[in-house]
């Protein structure tokens, strides 16, 4: 029997935080499934900054290399149930301490973001809240932001939680945007203080509700963070107008010296909170508890799956494209219609083919999530995606999104050009637009490269907690698949409307021979202006062993070169999804119904064994989805494609 060591919980916590901070897909976050997979990957070699007291006690008894090696071996031999109990205890502590929240089936740690600096241009400072607390600054950061998230989600609908930044968060209220910055001196100079935090609040409009936001932050500080101002009285005017005096005269001895160095420079916190009723905290605390229970249930479920050791061999993909939603009401209605259709496919399936599609594993959205790259259009699509994540128990790691030609801002590209007198020396045919022999439009590269900023702000950063990559391509991997997400619209604008391009070099990023590789972009391969480049790209897909190329754009469903791939060996299969929602009559191809795809891949011995695909279609928006025709065989309509890989 192996005795559990008290420090192991701290080690597990540090490993979870380390993974969340370095998560390449969803920044600052970790899925419950990933936590379970960590049970065999726990590192004992180093710590991150964490609970200083725990780290101090552990390091004191540690004899470095030998002790860590011994712990690693003992932990590896630990029985299954003991490991599960340890992990559940750690997760419970995270939620009980209120340093994280649960969103899109991911545990999010607000203090673990390091991907995007705070841009304060166009903002002015409204207030600064100075705090010295018993816990370190990361703890303060986590608690305040986690409460802010739940407050905007379940209590205060005026504010919307927009995104995380390296040192804070962004909120909006419809009239104004707010930056909440955590200025953490302890991370700049640990010799000064490990517990001081300046919370700076910025707004970008004089017409703002910053006072309400500031009041809420004060409430969280007063209720949830132990302040350590020696010999200071903190006067608080509570919601019932009764004056309460909080006296804090003791300081934790282990950090006393560090705190004393900065106490003389701190201000007494005196603040009136009579405008806010603190009873709403009960609702937020209930939500913390509900989410904790949900996570613990998922942990139990995933641990049980691993214990049963039944590998999953069938993976179902929902492939949507060209959403083009024009309002939230439309998106909500379309979600309900899609939900009913997927329920039908799961329960009844396509009877004459004896095929059912159960348990959505991945959702592919191959571009055109908007009409004009408008902020509200993107927000609508984001809410639609989040509904799918919640309904089908997915995470953003299972969501595969690429932009389309409707997803770059034509306003940005228009303003990136300036009229100039024509000169061969000044004119660049690859970036500039010739008006006539005397005039041309000169492109400002930096301004033009911001054309996907709204897509990044309101799609990518909402789903993945990170900005859309500067090189306009991305990759997402898991145990089975390697997905390459390309931007086929990277050279497009209103003056270069047919410059669709995909590059061989892009494929190198996904050169994982041991995994099943799938390339996703908006445009079909045969949409290239240069046919030679199109042929070369298709050949390169084959050479790099891509099994599929998934796309949209043509507002149809198409299996490119159907007759060829049915007889080919190791040939890339190109599958196009149709138009999901027609925002106007011009968006539709005459005589072609609205469509989406759903398909299942069966894997055997780590290789593709079978593809089963069907197309769903309907004649107009807001109506029920029906069986579609995938192809004709000897004049007979086929609703399902079944293809065995050789």
UniProtKB/TrEMBL annotation:
Ranges for domain Calcineurin-like phosphoesterase: 316-556
PANTHER family recorded: CYCLIC NUCLEOTIDE PHOSPHODIESTERASE CBUA0032-RELATED, PHOSPHOHYDROLASE
GO molecular function annotations of the record: hydrolase activity; metal ion binding
Family statement: Belongs to the cyclic nucleotide phosphodiesterase class-III family.
Annotated source species: Caminibacter mediatlanticus TB-2
Protein name per Swiss-Prot or TrEMBL: Calcineurin-like phosphoesterase domain-containing protein
UniProt KW keywords: Hydrolase, Iron, Metal-binding
SUPFAM superfamilies attached to this UniProt entry: Metallo-dependent phosphatases
């Amino acid at each position: 029997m192996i005795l559990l060591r008290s420090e192991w919980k701290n080690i597990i916590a540090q490993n979870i935080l380390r993974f969340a901070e370095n998560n390449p897909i969803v920044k600052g976050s970790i899925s419950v499934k990933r936590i379970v997979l960590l049970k065999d990957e726990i590192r004992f070699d180093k710590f991150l900054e964490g609970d200083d007291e725990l780290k101090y006690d552990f390091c004191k008894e540690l004899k470095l290399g030998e002790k860590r090696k011994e712990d690693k071996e003992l932990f590896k031999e630990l029985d299954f149930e003991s490991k599960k109990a340890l992990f559940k205890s750690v997760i419970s502590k995270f939620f009980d301490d209120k340093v994280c929240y649960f969103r899109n089936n991911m545990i999010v740690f607000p203090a673990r973001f390091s991907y995007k600096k705070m841009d304060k241009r166009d903002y002015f400072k409204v207030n600064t809240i100075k705090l010295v607390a018993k816990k370190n600054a990361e703890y303060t950061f986590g608690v305040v932001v986690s409460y802010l998230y739940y407050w905007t989600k379940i209590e205060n609908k005026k504010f919307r939680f927009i995104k995380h930044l390296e040192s804070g968060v962004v909120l909006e209220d419809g009239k104004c945007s707010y930056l909440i910055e955590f200025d953490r001196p302890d991370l700049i100079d640990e010799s000064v203080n490990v517990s001081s935090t300046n919370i700076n609040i910025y707004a970008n409009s004089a017409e703002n509700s910053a006072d309400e936001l500031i009041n809420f932050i004060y409430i969280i500080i007063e209720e949830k963070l132990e302040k350590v101002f020696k010999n200071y009285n903190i006067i608080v005017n509570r919601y019932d107008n009764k004056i309460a005096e909080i006296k804090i005269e003791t300081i934790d001895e282990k950090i006393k010296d560090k705190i004393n160095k900065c106490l003389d420079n701190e201000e007494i916190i005196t603040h009136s909170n009579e405008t806010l009723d603190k009873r709403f905290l009960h609702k937020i605390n209930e939500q913390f508890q509900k989410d904790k229970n949900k996570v613990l249930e998922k942990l139990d479920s995933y641990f049980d799956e691993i214990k049963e050791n039944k590998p999953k061999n069938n993976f179902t993909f929902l492939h949507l494209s060209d959403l083009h939603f024009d309002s939230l009401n439309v998106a909500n209605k379309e979600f309900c219609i899609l939900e009913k259709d997927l329920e039908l496919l799961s329960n009844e399936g396509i009877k004459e083919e004896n095929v059912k599609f159960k348990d959505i594993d991945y959702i592919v959205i191959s571009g055109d999530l908007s009409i004009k790259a408008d902020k509200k259009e993107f927000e609508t699509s984001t809410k639609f995606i989040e509904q799918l994540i919640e309904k089908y128990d997915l995470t953003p790691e299972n969501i595969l999104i690429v932009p389309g030609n409707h997803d770059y801002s034509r306003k940005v590209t228009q303003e990136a050009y300036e009229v100039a007198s024509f000169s061969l020396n000044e004119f660049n045919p690859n970036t500039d637009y010739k008006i006539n022999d005397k005039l041309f439009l000169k492109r400002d590269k930096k301004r033009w490269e911001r054309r996907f900023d709204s897509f990044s702000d309101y799609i990518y950063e909402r789903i993945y907690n990170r900005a859309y990559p500067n090189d306009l391509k991305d990759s997402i991997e898991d145990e089975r698949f390697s997905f390459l997400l390309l931007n086929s619209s990277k050279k497009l604008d209103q003056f270069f409307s047919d410059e669709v391009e995909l590059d061989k070099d892009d494929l190198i990023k996904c050169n994982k021979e041991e995994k099943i590789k799938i390339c996703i972009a908006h445009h079909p391969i045969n949409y290239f202006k240069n046919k030679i480049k199109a042929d070369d790209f298709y050949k390169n897909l084959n050479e790099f062993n891509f099994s599929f190329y998934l796309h949209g754009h043509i507002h149809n469903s198409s299996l490119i070169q159907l007759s060829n791939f049915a007889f080919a060996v190791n040939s890339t299969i190109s599958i196009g999804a149709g138009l999901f929602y027609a925002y106007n009559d011009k968006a539709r191809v005459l005589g072609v119904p609205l469509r989406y795809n759903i398909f299942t891949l069966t894997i055997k011995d780590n290789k593709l064994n079978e593809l089963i695909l069907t197309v769903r279609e309907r004649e107009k928006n807001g109506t029920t989805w029906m069986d579609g025709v995938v192809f004709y065989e000897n004049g007979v309509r086929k609703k399902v494609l079944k293809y065995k890989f050789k």
